[in-house]
Specification:
By secondary structure, the chain is an all-alpha fold. The protein has 10 helices and no strands. Bound molecules: fe (ii) ion (2 copies).
């Protein structure tokens, strides 16, 4: 889909602030796709639509999670997680995007998952480091992302886990699993050197 058309579709779903964030994620995702040799067009489309469902009513999202038999443990965790799988579903059913790589990048952009694809990693990290983000630790992740996408992802996950833990908030199991699997993979690699 043409960039202008995609942006037009997503703009009416978002607040101005979230739309600006989306533009930042788009630019960053394209940059990362170039750097790490992913499909730039898919990165662009996934980035544009990643927060498509962000402002859907909670009741609507909950119903979709139940009806579509998405992981039901989502319902007992932070509602902030819901817009990712629900977004993947709505981007397919309402916008007509049916590329599974793009849809999975949207689906896992908040929780992560074990064995993330390159495109999934790019959208996750782009969402975390886009230029509009200003929180402690983000500059370090931006720096690392210039060379090493997996380490940037590990740092983003680590920061998110610490942020939630400090606020006595539960951490979604897939987020921990993603963090652990990447670390273990990395340790395996460095042992093999
Ligand atoms: Fe999001
Ligand atoms: Fe986002």
């Amino acid at each position: 889909m043409e960039r202008e058309k995609a942006l037009e579709i997503v703009k009416v779903q978002l607040t101005e602030h979230r739309y600006q964030h989306t533009l930042g994620v788009m630019e960053t995702a394209i940059e990362l796709a170039k750097r790490f040799h992913a499909d730039e067009k898919k990165a662009e489309t996934a980035a544009i639509f990643h927060d498509y469902a962000k402002f859907r009513p909670k009741d609507e999202m909950k119903q979709i999670i139940i009806d579509q038999q998405f992981p039901q443990d989502l319902l007992i965790h932070n509602t902030e997680l819901w817009h990712a799988p629900v977004g993947a579903y709505l981007v397919k059913s309402e916008v007509g995007i049916d590329d599974d790589e793009i849809l999975d990048a949207i689906r896992y952009h908040t929780s992560g998952r074990e064995k993330m694809t390159l495109l999934e990693k790019i959208i996750f990290v782009a969402d975390y480091i886009e230029p509009g983000r200003h929180f402690p630790g983000v500059e370090e992740v931006r720096e690392v992302a210039r060379k090493d996408l997996d380490t940037a992802l590990i740092y983003s996950l680590r920061n998110t886990i610490i942020f939630l833990a400090k606020r006595n908030q539960a951490i979604y199991p897939d987020t921990i699993k993603t963090y652990n699997s990447l670390l273990i993979e990395k340790k395996g690699e460095s042992k093999g050197e």
